[in-house]
Amino acid sequence: MTVSEHAEKNPEHATFAHVSRGYYPTIVALFTAVLLISNICATKGVAFFAGTELAIGPLQILPIITDGGFFLFPMAYILGDVLSEVYGFKATRRAIYLGFGAMILASACFWLLLRLPSAEFYTNQAALEAVVGVYPRLLLAGLAGYLVGQLLNSLVMVTIKERTKEKHLWARLIGSTVVGEFADTLIFCAIAAGAIGISTWDDFFNYLIVGFLWKTLIEVLVMPITYRGIAYVKKREPTYVIAS
Of 113, 182, 196, 220, which is the most exposed, with the fewest CB atoms less than 10 Å away? Predict the structure, then answer.
């Protein structure tokens, strides 16, 4: 029914579009929110086991140095897994592009915010710059790593599902995580290394390998939650059809 037909049939009511009953818009909104929040949390450096030193060959295992977004960013991959498993690559790619656009918009808004003239009573400019300051090289590294990593994560998961159908979800989750997280970490490190103080190949590979293993380990540990999330959405998504 067109807008004009609806208006003629129901002249006393205003016309509105229908909202999708599926879970896709909600998951995309949560996916985007996690990306934005994790980028803010990442401005804080975090050290676990700061008083302990452990090395395996050239790899410095302890202390674990990371950023405050370490517990949130893997959640974006978990949500990406749910999107890929339930809605496919095309729908997930749309969500990734929306998240990418939201991150660019946030960075532009923060850049403008920092350049607005401060009121006389406002004394937190330096603190604000430390939290939301836009560093072009780090921004480029984060955006490039996120975009490539998420697209590869989704592509690998959907490709494996084409072969396994509903079987071996664990293989799809682990395989996509390994590829996506490695690409994300490699690209970020390659672009941002100089900006974060990495000046030698040993430090570069240490940062790359430890960061990749740490992120991947977190996703493996929360895999039972990913399983439950995927099962929940599949069961309640009215358009999901199990392939035979």
Answer: 113
CA atoms within 13 A on the CB side of 202: 6
Strand partners, 54: 62
Per-residue pLDDT of the chain (244 residues; tens, 9 = 90+): 555 555 556 667 677 777 777 889 999 999 999 988 887 887 777 778 888 888 887 777 788 777 777 778 778 888 999 999 999 999 999 999 999 999 899 889 999 999 999 999 999 999 888 888 877 777 888 889 889 999 999 999 999 999 998 899 999 999 998 999 899 889 988 887 776 667 778 778 877 887 788 878 888 888 998 999 999 999 988 888 775 5
Beta carbons within 10 angstroms of residue 227's beta carbon: 14
Global pTM value: 0.82
Distance CA 60, CA 66 (A): 13
What one-character DSSP code corresponds to residue 97? H
Spell out the residues 6+ positions from residue 218 whose beta carbon is closer than 8 angstroms to its own.
70, 71, 74
**Quick one: which of 33, 106, 100 has its CA closest to 73?**
33
* Cα–Cα distances in angstroms (integers) from residue 151 to residues 50, 81, 156, 179, 202, in the given order: 35, 11, 9, 10, 29
Residue whose token pair is 């069961």: 235
